[in-house]
Amino acid sequence: MLSVKEEENLYRLLYSGQSETVALGLELAQSLQFSLETFISPIHHVDQWLQEHAKDYKTTTETLAEKIARVLSMQGLTLTYKKPVSLPESIGILKNLRNLEASIVELSSLPESMSQLTELIWLVLTNNRLTLLPEWIGQLEQLEELSLSSNQLTSLPESIGKLTKLKRLTVIDNELTSLPETIGQLKQLESFQARSNKLIYLPESIGKLTNLNKLDLSDNLIYELPKSVGRLSNLKELRLQKNQLTSLPESIGNLTNLEKLDVSTNPLKSLPESISELQNLQSLNLSGTLLPHQLKKQLLRRLPNCSGLSV
Question: How many domains, in total, are found in the chain?
């Protein structure tokens, strides 16, 4: 049962007018002693209380339906708190949500009703305990940014290829060992960050990401790059440090827009001749490799625009 003070806080929340974005910390939920389920569902005792106490406030000619509509029209919801929380099935009724963040709340699973949030553009689920990304994620076709860093994901579903409007995909600090071939369908992707995983290889389809300008695969177990990486014609930044690469494909010379290349801390023994084609390269990190010192010196002459050479 809500106290008088808690009921007043709830009333003000519903009347706050902040229908664009609501940041609901767990402190607020706990102080009101009602769960997220209660917040986003038309619960009877809330409805009744609103009707009984409406006379105490100067606002309100607003009908009960309008009060509920105010909540349901939310476009943003943020949950960030260092205590466990779960997302209720009823979150699916917030069909107008554009932005949803649930970070540092120890989420271990996602309710299937989230598949109904088809207007989502921005979804951030970082610093949780997710081990599985459901196949229904592919139904969120308006997504432009998906951030899943610092979870325990071991794979990405094939359906991720349906997110054809995605521009930024971040899966840093997970347990990924491979990427699905369907990742090549993300033709609008501009930034893909997957450092600190357990990736061993990349699918050939990675070369289809021709809008990509930033690719971070550092701190993995990758031993070979596919030749298709040479088709990433818009790539400006490529981070491959702390892997198991012994060589780079000749096709890397096709990345003529590349400005930053980091292959440090790899057992590299040679570089392809085509490396000299990277005339826009400004920063090249070769430290911690097995490359002969003489070869490193030659690169200074072959890449005159590369002022940031680390050997």
Answer: 1
